[in-house]
Amino acid sequence: MLRVPAFIGIVAWLAHAGSAAAGAWTRAPDTSFTAQSTKFFTTELTGDDDLPFHKIIASSYIEYGLYESVTIGGKLDYAKRADGAEESFASIFVRPRLWQADNDVLSVEIGGGYPVLDALAAETSARDVTPDIRIGFTYGRGLPWDAGAWAEAAITFRKRLRSPADEVKLDLTLGYRPTDEIVPIGQMFGTLGLRNEGPFGANYDALKFSLSAGYRVTETRTLLLVVAQDVLGRNFDLGTEFGFTIWNTF
């Protein structure tokens, strides 16, 4: 079993860019949504690491309404460490809607990803950045507080195709629009490693909380400021994340 350093552990959270606007709901046919994020990750504020680690993370996410009940999409993540080392990961998915009522929706999402850059391949720790296959179910509900309030719960199984342990992920989202322009969002991201790693493979548990504050600057564009904190973890270094995300609809 390999202890996951901070620069690898943060890769587990890259998949969540855009998730607060995507989630269980499918998009209308021939409409698109994109999310571009830039974030700074550091272990310096937690006090858990004698040698603090810093990293800049950029990600681009897109989804497209293929049919009324089917959305497809993809994501590209790029990260650069303070020492200049780089890594990147690309993923695609399809999200069919399984059921919908007045305020409720249930969808399944099937996808996979592959590391694009292999700049860290010579390091044992980079074996955590490996191809994967994911299948997950997301339940969403519109809340009675207002037309713009919603909650989501997603559970996902992630099959790692090399040495790292497989994972089960649980993500919770609560969002609210008190006005047409303002949207605060709270999220929890949990990861449970299944202890089935291969030689030198990563195996970790993690729990992160995230708070976003968004403002719609135009009819089709929303700017969000994001702060996230690792609160619990096994075999990786806890860290703090600051950044911004831009949502666009077309």
List keywords for this structure.
250 residues, mainly beta, Porin, 1 helix, disordered N terminus
* Overall radius of gyration: 18 Å
CATH architecture: Beta Barrel
How is the biggest beta sheet arranged? Answer: 12 strands, antiparallel, barrel
Mean pLDDT: 86
Individual helix count: 1
CATH superfamily: monomeric porin ompg
Tell me what portion of residues adopts beta-strand conformation: over 45%
State the CATH class: Mainly Beta
H/E element sequence: HEEEEEEEEEEEE
Q: Could you say which overall geometry the principal axes of the C-alpha atoms support?
A: globular
Helix content: under 10%
Low-confidence stretches: 1-21, 119-127
Number of separate structural domains:
1
End-to-end Cα distance: 45 Å
Describe the protein in words.
- This protein has 250 residues and is mostly beta strands.
- The protein has one domain (6-249): monomeric porin ompg (Porin, Beta Barrel).
- It is 2% helix and 58% strand.
- The protein contains 1 helix and 12 strands, in the order αββββββββββββ.
- It has one helix spanning 6-9, and strands spanning 32-42, 54-67, 70-81, 86-100, 104-117, 132-142, 150-160, 167-175, 182-193, 205-216, 221-234, 240-249.
- The protein has a 12-stranded antiparallel β-barrel with strand order 1-2-3-4-5-6-7-8-9-10-11-12.
- A hairpin with a 6-residue loop joins β8 and β9.
- The longest helix has 4 residues, at 6-9.
- The chain is globular and about 50 Å long.
- The chain starts with 5 loop residues before the first helix and ends with a strand.
- Residues 1-21 and 119-127 have low confidence and may be disordered.
